Amino acid sequence: MSIDQTDEAVPALELRSLAKSFGGLKATRDVTFRVMPGDRKAIIGPNGAGKTTLFNLITGIYPVTSGQIFLFGNDVTKWRSHQRTALGMARTFQVTSLFPKLTVLDNVLLAINGLQPSKFVMWRPLASYRSTYDKAHSLLERASFLDRKDVEVRNLSHGEQRQLEIVLGLASDPKILLLDEPAAGLSSGESTEMAHFLIKLPRDLAILLIEHDMDVVFDVCAEISVLHFGELLETGTPEQIKKSQRVQEIYLGTG
Ligand SMILES: Nc1ncnc2c1ncn2[C@@H]1O[C@H](COP(=O)(O)OP(=O)(O)O)[C@@H](O)[C@H]1O
Ligand SMILES: [Mg+2]
């Protein structure tokens, strides 16, 4: 494909005939998929469908067996994870990356500082602290988290801690955010709060949500694709997916 369109038409993420085998097991089969700037899309599927494998291919954790991955028009198939991140892709941090005895604001300041090449330099001009602080403030504001900036992380609910991980992922100013089961291990109330949190994120941020729990994606995503044994079987609006006989069969294990 030639890049002859305007910026608007370049997908944030594009997968072309992506495949991954682990020995004889085909965990990803011929997956072709696009996420345009600002899109909110989901890939759902039962356990073992290959969701995390797909995520690991996109983020560069696993090498692909065949096919290509494009980020903002660049073929990143052979790029390392950090190079992909530098183009504007972020994935969430694990819970363990939060500092429980520090405040929400301090955690964000550390995440922003961790991105700077001079992180091991102890002395820095005051102006640079000011800009880090301003950035943290605006990040918390955009993520609707400013009201909890002075709360110690250990005093947040489990669901809020999972949201904060996502906020930290935004410190690098990504244009596409990849979330692997953000509602895993959350109660149904916390899952609903997670969905509301995701809906409120800045609209120009594209989100690819990889989820087992269908209820979360119905709220957040305009388009849902169903992965089954490594293959994309069906794509549709939440309404279409809810009504799909095939999807019901897959989730009931009779597919
Ligand atoms: N590193 C790996 N080595 C071998 N097999 C793997 C590896 N990662 C995943 N698999 C297999 O690939 C399939 C898809 O797994 P996974 O991507 O974790 O599914 P999901 O996230 O949808 O539950 C499973 O059969 C799993 O056992
Ligand atoms: Mg998984």
List the main descriptive attributes of the protein structure presented here.
binds adenosine-5'-diphosphate, 255 residues, binds magnesium ion, alpha/beta, 10 strands, 2 domains, 4-stranded antiparallel sheet
Radius of gyration: 19 Å
Strand order of the largest sheet: 6-7-8-3-9-10
Order of helices and strands: EEEHEEHEHHHEHEHEEHH
CATH architecture annotation of the largest domain: 3-Layer(aba) Sandwich
Bound molecules: adenosine-5'-diphosphate, magnesium ion
Briefly note the structural class of the backbone.
alpha/beta
Which bin fits the share of residues in helices?
25-40%
Mean pLDDT over the residues: 89
Quickly describe the structure:
The chain is an alpha/beta fold and 255 residues long.
Tell me what you see in this structure:
By secondary structure, this protein is an alpha/beta fold. It folds into two domains: 170 residues, Rossmann fold; 81 residues, no CATH class. 34% of the residues lie in helices and 24% in strands. The protein has nine helices and ten strands. The strands form two sheets. The protein has a six-stranded mixed sheet with strand order 6-7-8-3-9-10, sandwiched between helices. A four-stranded antiparallel sheet has the order 2-1-4-5, covered by helices on one side. α6 links the parallel β7 and β8. α3 packs across α4, α3 packs parallel to α5 and α5 runs parallel beside α6. The model has no long low-confidence stretch (mean pLDDT 89). It binds adenosine-5'-diphosphate and magnesium ion (MG). The site of magnesium ion has 2 residues, from α1.
